[in-house]
Design goal:
The protein has 16 helices and 11 strands. By secondary structure, it is α+β, with helices and mostly antiparallel strands. Bound molecules: adenosine monophosphate (AMP) and magnesium ion. Adenosine monophosphate binds at residues 84-89, 115-116, 119-122, 243, 248, 257, 259, 475-477.
């Protein structure tokens, strides 16, 4: 099949990538194909069904593909690595969707690159299908995200603690420009490249800002706005990214790089799933703080472009950075107003939401079900809601305050704002374990359920059974 690539990154930003070739896959097999995404991109799903294994394994790249590994740096758990880059991924090319929107088509798990350091450049079936599931869940919840177009089993094993079946993920993103992309060139003092990246980012993601008097300031301000909204949306659905390193934060405002991420079940602010997050740096309730921390790193990378006078540049950056907490809070309160089904907007709405969280904390209250069942309680009947709480005393004290603020059609609004189905940890594990063993049926069933998250599907709504234990996730390597 032909794909009409239009590779603006390679054309416009020489010196920011290295040409690479994907590793051959001995026996590629298409495990999952996102037909509706293919259609949205203007690609023929039937042709991809027939040729996707060869194309997305990297065995036969379509004409016009120009595979490159992109350079980036990043703060990982607070420590700076001046060179990370695509160590097991490549940008195959860009396409323009029928609506004119530009997308990257990117392969992850496609083999070694000059950025691989000690790694093998490979990925396993389980983590690539996890990224597929999580991205589709977020997309269905209306949260900006990269999405999987396909997962192909390569037919070759990858060596982790045990031998696992290898896979390549074909990922679609509105770009792969990361905070770390700017850091890479800023750390080398290559101001020209930072400026070209700035211009490119504005043209691609914030065209309204073209011609701004201070483009760096305008971009920083706009990224703060998009990322503040994104993290507020994550918090609303109980999503924990797990590795909010600066290389995993996209300038587009999309969720990117699904590794050890998971959705919280019982509300607990300190929830951490990642096996490597020993200090809880990326715990649920820390995510808004890390938002500010990461954007401060972006501001640092842009500093010389904010103003030629360093003191003035620092003042501009600080002004914007100091506003993040309030901007995030406003986004979060807006998310919570929707979740709570409130009428209009009042000053006390944030405090009302805080009070519900305080009532949930320590009570084992499932995040998703609590909000969903608020719909049953708009008339004062808490018989489905209260049993979610070990002790519902504080909840019962809160309910009348909330009822006084409800919109006329609150129950319907609450059901439209709060999912019934999220990719619950035990269901994700069950699907990935089966897929790793060759059975795709549980993955397909879970994918179908999370694609319509506001429809009730009982077997996908229950929290993990007691025996599931504390959930631990591992990096997608
Ligand atoms: P991630 O944890 O996936 O965000 O990756 C962080 C960095 O490690 C990126 O530069 C990746 O390209 C690199 N990396 C992760 N896994 C591998 C691997 N198996 N082989 C080579 N590089 C890798
Ligand atoms: Mg990453």
């Amino acid at each position: 099949m032909t794909i009409a690539f239009d590779n603006s990154w390679v054309r416009d930003l020489p010196g920011t990538f290295l040409s690479v070739q994907p590793a051959p896959a001995p026996a590629p097999r298409l495990l999952a194909l996102n037909r509706s995404l293919a259609e949205r991109l203007g690609l023929d799903p039937d042709a991809l069904q027939a040729e996707g294994a060869e194309i997305f394994s990297g065995n036969r790249l379509p004409e016009g593909a120009d595979p490159v590994a992109q350079a980036y740096a990043g703060h990982q758990f607070g420590g700076f690595s001046p060179q990370l880059g695509d160590g097991r991924a490549l940008l195959m090319g860009e396409i323009l969707a029928p609506d004119g929107q530009r997308f990257d088509i990117h392969l992850k798990g496609s083999g070694r690159t000059p950025f691989s350091r000690g790694g093998d450049g490979k990925a396993a079936v389980g983590p690539m299908l996890r990224e597929y599931l999580m991205g589709e869940a977020m997309a269905a919840l209306g949260i900006p995200t990269t999405r999987a177009l396909a997962v192909v089993a390569t037919g070759a094993p990858v060596l982790r603690e045990v031998e696992l079946p290898g896979a390549v993920l074909a990922r679609v993103a509105s770009s792969h420009i990361r905070v770390g992309s700017f850091q890479f060139f800023a750390a080398r003092g290559d101001l020209g490249q930072v400026r070209r990246l700035l211009d490119y980012t504005i043209a691609r993601h914030y065209p309204d800002l073209a011609g701004s008097a201070n483009p760096a300031k305008a971009l920083l301000d706009a990224v703060i706005a998009r990322q503040s909204r994104l993290i507020a949306q994550w918090m609303g659905v109980g999503f924990i990214h797990g590795v909010m390193n600066t290389d995993n934060m996209a300038l587009s405002g999309e969720t990117i790089d699904y590794g050890p991420c998971a959705f919280m079940e019982a509300y607990a602010p300190g929830t951490v799933f990642s096996s490597i997050d020993h200090t809880g740096r990326y715990a649920y309730a820390n995510q808004p703080l890390i938002l500010g921390w990461n954007l401060a790193r972006l501001a640092e990378a842009l500093l010389p472009l904010l103003d030629p006078d360093q003191d003035r540049a620092v003042d501009i950056a600080n002004d914007l950075l100091e506003g993040i907490a309030a901007r995030y809070r406003a986004e979060w309160v807006a998310v919570m107003r929707g979740k709570l089904g409130l009428a209009g907007a009042e000053d006390g709405d944030g405090a009302l939401a805080d009070a519900l969280l305080a009532a949930m904390e320590g009570q084992g209250a499932d995040w998703t079900l609590t909000f969903r069942r608020l719909a049953d309680a708009v008339g004062g009947d808490a018989t489905t809601l209260a049993p979610l709480f070990a002790d519902a005393t504080a909840l019962r004290a809160w309910l009348p305050r909330w009822q006084a603020r409800l919109a006329p059609d609150a129950a319907a609004r609450i059901r439209a704002a709060n999912p019934a189905v999220i990719p619950r940890n035990h269901k994700v594990e069950e699907a990935l374990a089966a897929a790793t063993a060759g059975d795709m049926a549980p993955f397909e069933a879970l994918l179908a359920a999370i694609a319509t998250p506001f429809a009730e599907a009982e077997s996908y709504m229950l929290p993990a059974p007691q025996g599931f234990g504390r959930y631990v996730t591992y990096c997608g390597t």
